[in-house]
Every structure is written in structure tokens, then in C-alpha cells.
Design brief:
The protein is mainly beta and 101 residues long. It contains 1 helix and 6 strands, in the order E-E-E-E-H-E-E. The protein has one helix at 62-74; strands at residues 3-7, 12-16, 19-29, 40-41, 77-83, 86-96.
């Protein structure tokens, strides 16, 4: 398959591989009043719900459970982790690029 895209910096046509990686990466500042976030991956299938007594300080984890369910059903890998004062979320999917007709 001959696919052609545009190099946005040079406005030149370039060949595109029919296989690509779609990656969404969101970074936010951690709340210093909240506990540090442990690394989480959608493929682990580990519930992250805290004990009832700690639910005032930590989210319930229900959102991450929903992300894991959808990610695992759709072939997406999702990851959440914290580096210093930044929290990162990344979703990755291997995709096939098709030429627009």
C-alpha cells in the first residue's frame, strides 16, 4: 500500500507506513495533599478501590476500572503513573492506516 502524508514542518509529501501507533498522553500536576499514585496498567485487572476509611483521600478507582474494561475490549493499553509532582496517563493503540478514497 502506498500511502502519502505531509511533513508538516516542510510541507513535503512523505511515505507513511500502513501500520502506526496512536498514542494519547496527558500530564497533570499531582495534588500534594493526596497520597502518591502507584503505577497502574489496564492489563493488570487489579481493582484499585481503597478501603472505605481512606476513600476521603483517594478516588474510588471506579474510573480506572472503566478505563481498563474499555481498553482491554478495544485493544488499547492504558497506563497511569506519577513522577515527582506530575501525574501521567497514556493510552496506546496499534492501528492500520488506510488511504482515504
Amino acid at each position: 500500500v502506498d500511502l502519502v502524508g505531509t511533513d508538516l514542518l516542510a510541507s513535503n509529501p512523505v511515505a507513511i507506513s500502513p501500520r502506526a501507533i496512536l498514542r494519547v498522553h496527558v500530564t497533570n500536576y499531582a495534588n500534594p495533599a493526596k497520597p502518591r499514585i502507584s503505577e497502574w496498567r489496564s492489563s493488570n485487572n487489579v481493582p484499585l478501590r481503597p478501603a472505605a476509611s481512606s476513600s476521603q483521600n483517594i478516588s474510588s478507582g471506579l474510573g480506572l476500572e472503566h478505563i481498563a474494561m474499555v481498553a482491554n475490549l478495544s485493544g488499547v493499553t492504558a497506563k497511569l503513573w506519577q513522577n515527582d509532582n506530575q501525574v501521567h496517563f497514556r493510552a496506546t493503540k496499534h492501528v492500520e492506516v488506510k488511504q482515504h478514497e
